[in-house]
Amino acid sequence: MLGPVLLAAARSDSIRRVVSAAPVTRPVVDRFVAGERLDASMAAVRSLADRGMEVTLDHLGEDITDPAEALRNRDAYLQLTAALKDLGLGERAEMSVKLSAFGQALPGGHELALKNVTPVVEAAAEAGTTVTLDMEDHTTVDSTLAILGELRARFPQTGAVLQSYLFRTEDDCRALAGEGSRVRLVKGAYKEPATVAFQDKREVDKAYVRCLKILMAGEGYPMIGSHDPRMVAIGQELGRRFGRKPAEYEFQMLYGIREAEQERLVTEGHRMRVYIPYGTDWYGYFMRRLAERPANLAFFLRSLVTKS
């Protein structure tokens, strides 16, 4: 299977050196990752903000092996929060965090992740912005939603991500469709077993629409995370059906993908948020995305050929 091979490659220093040195690598990385340094990501934020878009920033670093790395990731997000505050970008930029980067997968990981992410959420609130908890594979869902519940008790603007391909997600959407709840709905990128997730693309798409209907009919704030033109059109139609104004939901897409579509949605008056990953762990990020679902490889290659 290609997935295990790519995961092994993600952890191989020798393969990292080869891939990093390849002439074709840098254009791909520059297309999808907003640089390795914080200042580069801030330049991308300003550029997108000038074009009427909002952003969510992801500091790369979820593949950690010890608590010290979790603390370094916490500190990186605190630096990011300070930069957003200093530049007055809090209203245009939020942050996305993977709890694995804060130690969720380590021994005692639930408590460790909550301890490490809490000061980031506190700092974000002080800076006039917020945090969305990215969702990872199905084994982390209960822990992530429990941490979300604890954070929302103090910071109700904290967002969550739900993945439509999991059988449980419709119920999770109902639980999170209340007033003030911010939910990004995605199809899901991890390779999940048939015992917990739909395997057929058509079933995943149908589940996405069912989940989006629940969120749009609720009192929360839906965030439509999809590059699929059909899902974007359905999102617009559901917004109209449920009487939502353009400011009462938003679309989200990855940095460097379907840029013309991002511009179109902004021109039509929709809120468009771009997911910007940055940091030195771009290699691990890219390889893990391919390993989670090798079909992503064709998706990224197609996106490299055309920016539309």
Automatic annotation (TrEMBL):
**The keyword Cell division is annotated on this UniProt entry:** no
Pathway participation: Amino-acid degradation; L-proline degradation into L-glutamate; L-glutamate from L-proline: step 1/2
The reply on keyword Transit peptide is no
InterPro entries recorded: FAD-linked_oxidoreductase-like, PRODH_bac_arc, Proline_DH_dom, Proline_oxidase
- Coiled-coil boundaries: none
The record's keywords, sorted A to Z, are:
FAD, Flavoprotein, Nucleotide-binding, Oxidoreductase, Proline metabolism
Which Pfam families did the record assign? Answer: Pro_dh
Q: Which domain of life is it from?
A: Bacteria
Q: Which residues form the Proline dehydrogenase domain?
A: 43-299
Instruction: Give the main EC class.
Output: oxidoreductase
* The enzyme's E.C. designation: 1.5.5.2
Instruction: Name any cofactors this protein relies on.
Output: FAD
What protein name applies here?
Answer: proline dehydrogenase
Biological source species: Streptomyces chrestomyceticus
